C-alpha cells in the first residue's frame, strides 16, 4: 500500500507536511499585516532618538541618552507578534535571535534584557511607563496615546 509504506507511517508524514504548509501560510499572512512602531515615553523631557541610538539601546550597547539620562527599556511579551515585528524591523533579528543575544550578554555580565511585560495591551505599557519616569517602550504607532512623547518611529522598509 502506498509503494511499500503502511498507512501508519504515511499518515503522520502527510499530517506533518500539511502542518508545515499551513504554518508557512500563517507566517505569510502575518507579514502582510506589519505595522509601523513608535518608541516612546510618557516623560516629555526625554529627547528624540536617532535610529542608531535606538538600535544601541535595544542591543544593550548603551543605557543612557544624552550621555547622562539613564533609561529603562520595557519589552512586550515573548509571544507577542508585535515584539517579533519590532525587532525584525529595527534590528533585522527575530525574537529567538534576540533571546540568544541577550542570554550571551547576561551570561558574560555585559547586560541584561529589557523588563518583559505580561501583556502587550497599551494600558499595561502606559501603566509601566508612568511608574518608570525614564522608561521607554514601543508599540504600534496607532495605539500610542496623544500625550506620549514619541522619541522615534520605526517604519516598514526602513
What assembly state would you assign to the polypeptide chains in this entry? single chain
Mean pLDDT: 83
- Share in β-strands: 15-25%
Strand order of the largest sheet: 5-4-6-1-7
Can you give a write-up of this model?
By secondary structure, this protein is α/β, with parallel strands linked by helices. The protein contains five helices and seven strands. The strands form two sheets. A five-stranded mixed beta sheet has the order 5-4-6-1-7, sandwiched between helices. A two-stranded antiparallel ribbon has the order 2-3. A hairpin with a 3-residue loop joins strand 2 and strand 3. The longest helix is centred in the first third of the chain and has 26 residues.
What are the main properties of this structure?
five-stranded mixed β-sheet; 158 residues; alpha/beta; globular
Give a concise summary.
With 158 residues, the protein is of the alpha/beta class.
What topology does this entry show?
Layout: H1 7-32, E1 37-41, H2 51-58, E2 64-65, E3 69-70, E4 72-75, H3 81-91, H4 95-108, E5 115-116, H5 122-131, E6 135-140, E7 149-154
Parallel strand pairs: 4-5, 4-6
Antiparallel strand pairs: 1-6, 1-7, 2-3
